[in-house]
Structure formats: C-alpha cells, structure tokens
Amino acid sequence: MDASKLPARLMLDTQILVLALEHQSVKHANNPSTALARKLWEIAIGSRRTRVLIAAPSVFEFRVSPSAPPLPRLANIEYVAYSAVVAEDMSKWASPHVLKPPPGTKETTRNIVRYDALIVACAAHWKADLLVSEDNGMQTLADAARVQCVTLDYFLESQPNLFGE
User: Fold this and answer.
1) Strand, helix or coil at 76?
2) 33, 88, 120, 136: most buried by Cβ count inside 10 Å?
3) What CATH code is carried by the domain that includes residue 44?
4) pLDDT tens digits, one per residue of 82-110
5) Taking Cα atoms as reference points, which of 113, 119, 118 lies closest to residue 133?
6) From CA 145, how far away is CA 103, in angstroms rounded?
7) Each residue's pLDDT tens digit, 35-78
8) What gap in Å lies between CA 6 and CA 9, rounded to an integer?
C-alpha cells in the first residue's frame, strides 16, 4: 500500500463513500467496486500527505439513507461547502448542454444539478487534484469544470501498487 501515489487533494464522490463506509452491507457485498473503495478510503485516511475532500452535497446524499453511518471527523478529512461563490464559479462551465443526462440513463437534469454537478463544482472550487467517482456522466461534468475525474479502476491500471497487488 503506497499512499505516496495519492494526490495531495483527493475528492471522493458519494458513491465511493457509500461503498467504502457501508462495505459490510449485504446490499454492497457483491459489488466488485466495494473492496476497492474501502481500500482506497483506508489508504487515503491513513495518509499524512493526502487531504480527503468531501463535498457538502455528498454529506447530505450519503446521510439521507437511514442506514448510513456517521461520517468520520479526522484531521485529514476536509468537508467542503457549496456556497454562493462556488455557484458563481459553476455558472461559468455548467451550461444546459453539460447538464444534459447521459444517454440511456434514468437521470434527469434536476438530479444531475442536485448532486453530481454540485459535487464537481466543489471539486473545482476547492481545487481537488483528483475526483473519484463511479457515476455515469460525472466525467462530462468534470471535463467541463476542468477537474480530473477517474473511476476506481484508475488505481488498478495506472497505480497497480497502490492496493498492494
């Protein structure tokens, strides 16, 4: 496990938090991403040089589930706000074309604005070096905001030693 391969400012999307923190749930047991998300979480929170960023919209989206555990308060976890300043920054890149749901999904523009776009806006404003997400369509939003967005597979492909494999 080489935490030095993690960026200085790592933002985790809500789905990554769900998989990492509810990893023992029967609901997530058969998801192959669960073990990767948990391992990434453990490595990131154990790193002295990495700040784990969690966007305020992710806090709500995560905690709205009745089974969600409390989010930890650790020295290297930074809960970042969505504010009027972030909204102004977001208005520069979040055009109607960018906010259009990906083809073949059940997403609506309202859902995208409610969570995904706000999370990406926080990643951009709070200068995340990397945003980790498994959500369809997040890459389009991240590209528009000029945020590097990767899936969990990124750590297997580009940094195979991160997970000690």
Assistant:
1) coil
2) 120
3) 3.40.50.1010
4) 999 999 998 898 877 777 777 777 776 66
5) 119
6) 20
7) 999 999 999 999 999 999 999 999 999 999 888 889 999 999 99
8) 8
